[in-house]
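I have been asked to look over a protein record a colleague put together. Alongside the sequence sits a line of tokens, each denoting a local backbone shape. I have pasted the whole thing underneath without changing anything:
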Amino acid sequence: MLRFVLCDDNSQVLSRLTKTLEAIFIKNDIDAQISYSATTSNEILHYVENNKVDVLILDINLKSNISGCDIANIVRKKNKNVYIIFLTGHLEYALMAYKYKTFDYLSKPVTDERLEDTVLRLVEDTKEARTKFIKLNNNTIIKQDDINYIKKDGMKLVFCTSTRDYEIYSSFSKIQNCLPDNFVRCHKSYIINVNNITHFTITDNIVLFEHNSYCSIGAKYKNQFLEVFNYGDFSNNLERINK
């Protein structure tokens, strides 16, 4: 599911934008939701620092000391994968906005057709990205589907596949934004790919993969894991990585 977060200092614009986006999601059968919306930069910054965000739609001029571009700059430093879309009635801001690897720039007043076109292109872009490889910091590239689980081992992370393991010096917090929703925390030392599970036993707290590969389910994460596995509720599962 794509999580949209919106920020515009005009509450009426924000309300209309929310309703239009939701109508676009329904009309085109898009698996997306408005996770959060706010009229102030501080509210948005607090939310994006503590929650996973896929698409950020920002008014550039928020009538405060923190502009939409400032928010984009802060977010982009932490999350290189978030889609950023700018809104503004001031055309002179357009070139400035693209500095932050902007997906699109929408001039106010935004028409329903223009917004729908942008959302549909964004959805297509995410589908293409799902073929999905993870580039490790040693320039090794791994196909996401091949990863059974990621193990924390001291200062290292071990990416475990059915054929071999890949080790890098890193942490869960540094890779969490590169992982799709099917990667779920099940233990303080493990993030698993639920798509590759062959079996799990709740009594023994073990998750099994091909070739008898396995990892443990931690007591702290057990209920969360069961909720995700049984109901497909992937929302917020990686935000808790360091908690």
Summary: The mean pLDDT is 85. Residues 38 and 44 are 6 Å apart (CA to CA). The first helix runs from residue 11 to 27.
